[in-house]
Amino acid sequence: MNKLQDAIQAIRPLDRRAMEETARRLDRLTKPPGSLGKLEEVAVKLAGIAGETVAAPPKKAVVVMAADHGVCAEGVSAFPQEVTGQMVHNFLAGGAAINVLARQTGAEVVCVDIGVLGELSHERLVSRKVRAGTANMAREAAMTREEAVRAIEVGIGLAGELAAQGVGLFATGEMGIGNTTPSAAMLAAFGGLDPTEVVGRGTGLDDAGVRRKEETIRRALDTNRPDRTDPLDVLAKVGGLEIAGLAGLILGAAAERRAVVIDGFISTVAAIAAVRLAPAALNYLLPSHLSEERGHRLALRELGLEPMLHLQMRLGEGTGAALVFPLVDAACNVLAQMATFDSAGVSEA
Fold first, then answer.
1. Going from the N-terminus, what domains does the chain have, and what CATH number goes with each?
2. Which residues of the chain have pLDDT under 70?
3. Which positions are catalytic?
4. Are the C-beta atoms of residues 267 and 246 closer than 8 Å to each other?
């Protein structure tokens, strides 16, 4: 708990002086003020996070947290549970979608076993297993409060390690068969929403599967009665280890004054948990895309964030977040490479 509290206390407000200086520089570039839209917003926000104008693309890492879920016993996924571990091996071999997109954008993929069933071994695997999958939340709490804290602290610690290696921009990724179910349950708990409002098709459920998923979430909420005012209680009772790990990654990155690009539905629910624990962490988030998963729009609304992309994606892994990396690079390069009115000898309006 000390690491969690230390991270929360280390998160500072954005640096307004750096933001104002960056905004002034953007207005001196050879363009109408504000004409680069969200790119300018990103540049100003990055300055506020770093405490200085960020005029070079940062080193990037997509952190993929992997864990299994006991609630899969209720038939809430179209894929068998063993796919979680199999996909971890795929990530490590470089064959998944996130590997392709990360290579394209010059980002590192960091794969973390925070709660996969069975033993995994690979030289590039970051093994930080808290427990081998959660319990079935439809029948009991997914994990203990202490395990939820440990999972959060895994993320905090990893953010610190990667920041020390020069990573300046993080993206949230995840892998866990069945994990849209705890994500939907957490969103329902945090937002006081009915399961029918937040449940989507996940890995491709048919109508009967969606109804079964809704009923499973309803039973989980009735059985565990998570306290919406206590994010640790929500995470422990109806959450997931990888979701808690991502919440910790966000807190740890914010404590290190690093920006975090959040991916889709599961990542955004993790971000809600992080912001409930430390409201100041909201300022360190860059939303990426709007997922096709039903609850994602509601999750973004809970945070008051507008996505930059809408590509009808719903894969997870950090794929939507990776596609925003080139936009971040563009925002930095505009600051570094565009001429000012004075240097170019261009008349102003």
1. 2-55+334-344 (1.10.1610.10), 59-327 (3.40.50.10210)
2. none
3. 317
4. yes
